[in-house]
Write a sequence for this structure.
């Protein structure tokens, strides 16, 4: 009789905590609460009858018992991912799973997906919209769109956009009792803030833009805050204030006249949106087809 295995979720939680040395970071990767991760690890320890993790000054580390099985456990998860990819590839229809930041999906990608569908009707897209950085080797994700420098070991990254950050607002704010004519006019308008820290890189805020504009008498800390670009931009479209947009995220709204850029000054960033995949899967025909398509779309948008 085969040995009864513990819960797969519990094993995955233990592996993630051991790798991150943190229950919180493991929870972010697995898209569950820290309490759920703690319960899974506790259940695994009870099932195996031994303590698997110990708390140290540098975080949670595996005990000798936990460490004895980690290598095989990680190899097992890698083999499971490979098996799922092989089975998925044998279906008559191909599903291409893409991890993407929710704001990038909402403001740029979703509106263009129909054009990829016209080019490759046999491929269905699965968008996993999440701010968490997917592990392409373990999460059964084919591609991801990430913001950063493009330096991710083991992954092939292609740059989609050079990002500049600049104020955007509803056209109606250009007129009225306090029209926006020059950066100093922002003192009479609500500033919409983005509370977002990318996993890799930086994002200029109002303090940075006003400093670049040479404006010192505008309170850069006031105004509502949002955790997603798309929410801040929607508030700007509704005329609720002035937001900081970027090349990719506001392209369609600017083209449609929903937003305008009242000032010429842009703050460049050294980071950008990239399409990434595992190096060993970069020449997969479906992945390559999507890469060619999105690069063409990005070039068209930039132009």
């Amino acid at each position: 009789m085969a040995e009864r295995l513990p819960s797969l979720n519990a094993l995955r939680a233990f592996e993630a905590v051991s790798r991150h040395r943190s229950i919180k970071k493991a929870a972010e990767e697995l898209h569950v609460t820290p309490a759920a991760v703690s319960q899974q690890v506790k259940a695994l320890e009870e099932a195996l009858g031994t303590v698997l993790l110990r708390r140290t000054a540098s975080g949670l580390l595996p005990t000798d018992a936990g460490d004895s099985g980690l290598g095989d456990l990680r190899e097992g998860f890698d083999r499971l991912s490979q098996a799922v990819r092989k089975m998925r590839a044998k279906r008559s229809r191909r599903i291409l799973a893409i991890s993407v930041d929710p704001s990038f999906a909402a403001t740029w990608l979703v509106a263009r997906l129909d054009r990829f569908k016209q080019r490759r009707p046999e491929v269905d897209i699965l968008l996993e919209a999440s701010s968490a950085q997917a592990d392409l080797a373990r999460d059964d994700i084919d591609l991801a769109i990430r913001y950063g420098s493009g330096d991710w070991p083991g992954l092939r990254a292609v740059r989609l956009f050079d990002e500049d950050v600049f104020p955007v607002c509803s056209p109606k704010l250009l007129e009225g009792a306090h029209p926006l004519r020059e950066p100093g006019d922002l003192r009479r308008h609500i500033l919409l803030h983005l509370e977002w820290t990318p996993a890799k890189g930086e994002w200029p805020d109002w303090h940075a833009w006003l400093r670049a504009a040479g404006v010192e008498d505008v309170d850069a800390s006031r105004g509502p805050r949002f955790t997603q670009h798309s929410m801040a931009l929607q508030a700007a479209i509704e005329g609720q204030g002035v937001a900081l947009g970027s090349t990719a995220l506001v392209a369609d709204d600017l083209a449609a006249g929903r937003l305008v850029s009242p000032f010429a000054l842009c703050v460049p960033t050294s980071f950008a949106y990239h399409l990434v995949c595992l190096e060993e899967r970069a020449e997969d025909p479906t992945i390559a087809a999507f890469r060619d398509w999105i690069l063409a779309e990005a070039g068209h948008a930039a132009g």
